[in-house]
Amino acid sequence: xxxxxxxxxxxxxxxxxxxxxxxxxxxxxxxxxxxxxxxxxxxxxxxxxxxxxxxxxxxxxxxxxxxxxxxxxxxxxxxxxxxxxxxxxxxxxxxxxxxxxxxxxxxxxxxxxxxxxxxxxxxxxxxxxxxxxxxxxxxxxxxxxxxxxxxxxxxxxxxxxxxxxxxxxxxxxxxxxxxxxxxxxxxxxxxxxxxxxxxxxxxxxxxxxxxxxxxxxxxxxxxxxxxxxxxxxxxxxxxxxxxxxxxxxxxxxxxxxxxxxxxxxxxxxxxxxxxxxxxxxxxxxxxxxxxxxxxxxxxxxxxxxxxxxxxxxxxxxxxxxxxxxxxxxxxxxxxxxxxxxxxxxxxxxxxxxxxxxxxxxxxxxxxxxxxxxxxxxxxxxxxxxxxx
Length: 388
Known about the structure:
Elements: E1 2-6, E2 13-19, H1 29-40, H2 48-51, E3 56-60, E4 62-63, E5 66-67, E6 72-77, H3 95-98, H4 112-119, H5 125-131, H6 136-152, E7 156-164, E8 167-168, H7 177-185, H8 197-209, E9 216-223, H9 239-248, E10 253-258, E11 276-279, E12 283-286, E13 294-295, E14 298-299, E15 304-310, E16 321-323, E17 330-332, H10 343-365, H11 371-386
Antiparallel strand pairs: 1-2, 2-6, 3-6, 4-5, 7-8, 7-9, 9-15, 10-15, 11-12, 13-14, 16-17
Helix pairs in contact: 1-6, 1-10, 4-5, 6-10, 9-10
């Protein structure tokens, strides 16, 4: 399974092409649109979310509600593009029109300046348009397809925010994946502790009044994962490493950890390793899950627990100082639309990229021309690992 995304923030549409999805997977636009709506929701979102109401359109690879095995093409129309027809025109236009909304004041922490240097732009809008988090729309769409596949294999995935702008959210112990999913879905800030809901909302409101932004830490949990996904034989086949790369590729994400993560560096080995158990009913399990479902770069059958840290959004309504790329004079950075925080939306994106990598790994390991064949292969593997 492989995929590509294309499109600009204010271009006519966003596109994704996925190749390698088995034939026979039930799939409708509503399977995608639900996650696209989640990505646009959450407390603290800004004006762009009021303009767009993302809906996906299949143009290939799906017929009569099921995948055909051919490449799947998905499009999402940018409604806001109608206000940007000249600015985002693919055809050459007059110089006076080119100067409209031209960007020469790069924002600290964004791709504006470095992208302009790398690709030799005199208008940093070229950097801004593709590096915008609007691109994650299609990664969420791809992830929604992946989640449909995982669901057919009895795998469940959930996400929630565990740190909100430095405020740690107390998470009740031993919550199931289903419980995490249900609780986070009921929260406008995607947390599982309802007692902290209003506190976090008030904090976001204050940050917005200050013209500032906040980041935080998002956790994704996956249950029902088969044993032995990934491999220890080469560095690039370790599945936790592949997941880490995918998470850090999300806009504004700067770090990733599994299970105890960095906390493991403060503990003794006896306080970190997960003791192995076996029973006739469950096969091999672990007494704890400190390693987040991984040993040796491979899944061990425990739930995958992965966290990503998101920096504050670079665009500030009280902008930081920058330098004009034409005059090299100090200047306040350009202000585009921004949110005080996008953590709830980022958690949806993280869920999507984790699901995508897991789907890719499963389709690489098991026979998967069609869904029936894949389900039989996974069931056979699960029976083998249980009785090993």
